[in-house]
Amino acid sequence: MTRELADITHLEPAWDLKAVRRDFPLLELQQDGRPLAYLDNAATTQKPRQVIDAISDYYRRDNANVHRAIYRLGARATEAYESARRTVASFIGAETDKGIIFTRGATEAINLVAYSWGRHNLKPGDEIVVTLMEHHSNLIPWQLLARDTGSTLRHIPLTPDFTLDLEAARKIIGQQTKLVALVHKSNVFGVENPVAEITNMARDAGALMLLDAAQSVPHMPVNVQQLDCDFLAFSGHKMLGPTGVGVLYGRPDLLDSMQPFQGGGEMIDRVTMESATWNDIPWKFEAGTPNIAQAVGLGAAMDYLTAVGMNNIHDYLGQLAGYTRERLQEMDFITLYGPPESSSGIVTFNVDGIHPHDLAQFLDQEAIAVRAGHHCAQPLMDCLGVAATTRASMYIYNTTAEIDRLIEALRKAHSFFN
In terms of Cα–Cα distance, which of 88, 126, 93 is closest to 109? Predict the structure, then answer.
């Protein structure tokens, strides 16, 4: 390891960390005369110049509506948009890009399934199974669906060490189960859930499988064919892409059988004053003018991550999370939450005697950005017996030097408040 790299990290990632950090303009900002240590990547990641330039270049050179114009500018816009779709399909190992639907984010992708599949296929007596560690985006849509269809929502509890209780899952997932909706990696614990085991249970019951992959697709190789999922949802902004764009992957045969999510332009084939027929997938689910520039930016973000290497990212974030937990365990006034085998660069904790909101504000004065609150997982907070926690979440540009700054600031905060 070179001296220059050792100055910022005790770990040695497979990429040039200093060069990567130079790609992110926001990391050059100073806050109160100090560089910002951005440790809220599970909420959203920063954007490299390559993504910013791809969006800007689209607006400068290719801006037109897609699929409609005969002129060359419109053809270029359509190709840029559909090229991004092909990039997404390749990135997640989809067999065809026909199963890739652009949405506004993971939340809209999950709601699309709830409305377009759930409201036409569930009835009283049917069951939807989720887990206690779901993000609200993978819980509220199913609560609404159960309310509106008369079906029942059940959840898989946790073991005392805060992993999913597979024995309970085997009893819950049964012949009445029509859908299992599971978070792939927890946004609170960062732990990867046993998807293969639960998928086997769902298959044995004849149920569909949906994965909330908002925290897994950015952090590890994900292949939808190997996962054997029916649906997979994720957001662009958590993986270096812009806000306002996400992806629903669906099995093409399932998508073909589903009703549209929204009505309007582009999702139609033939319209009369009395009725309409629908476009082919994936366009059947993309009514109106889509988020073209955002999709282009997402494609550029995936190209960037592919160049870094998803296996490399997974390994480094696991090491960085392990280093963070080790440093936090040096202090007897820290309570860590969740199993220790986090590999998503997410570490959740509290400082004795300090409310997480107060702590986050104190850390902001030290130019350190962390997340404080319930992390859109209030049932999990209830299980932990707390109203809120503090979360530090890392990504490809973070360093052990930033973690060391966090540790020093936590000691300072504990001394100040106590």
Answer: 88
pLDDT per position as a tens digit, 179-218: 999 999 999 999 999 999 999 999 999 999 999 999 999 9
pLDDT tens digits, 380-402: 999 999 999 999 999 999 999 99
User: For position 344, what pLDDT does the model report?
Assistant: 78
Alpha carbon distance 249, 296 (integer Å): 17
> What's the farthest any 2 CA atoms get from each other in the chain?
72
Instruction: Say how far apart CA 37 and CA 195 lie, in whole Å.
Output: 33
DSSP 192: B
264: exposed, middle or buried (Cβ count in 10 Å: 0-12, 13-18, 19+): exposed
- Model confidence pLDDT, tens digit, residues 279-295: 999 999 999 999 999 99
Would you say 285 and 235 are in contact if contact means Cβ atoms under 8 Å apart? Answer: no
392 pairs with which residues across the strands?
347
Q: How far apart are CA 287 and CA 113, in angstroms?
A: 15
Is residue 277 within 8 A of residue 268, CB to CB? The reply is: yes
Give the domains, in start order, of the chain with CATH numbers: 3-35+309-417 (3.90.1150.10), 51-307 (3.40.640.10)
- Is 290:66 a contact under the CB 8 Å cutoff? yes
Q: Is 376 a catalytic residue?
A: yes
Under DSSP, is residue 219 helix (H, G, I), strand (E, B) or coil? coil
Q: Which of 64, 254, 369, 376 is catalytic?
A: 376
Whether the predicted pLDDT of 9 surpasses 90: no
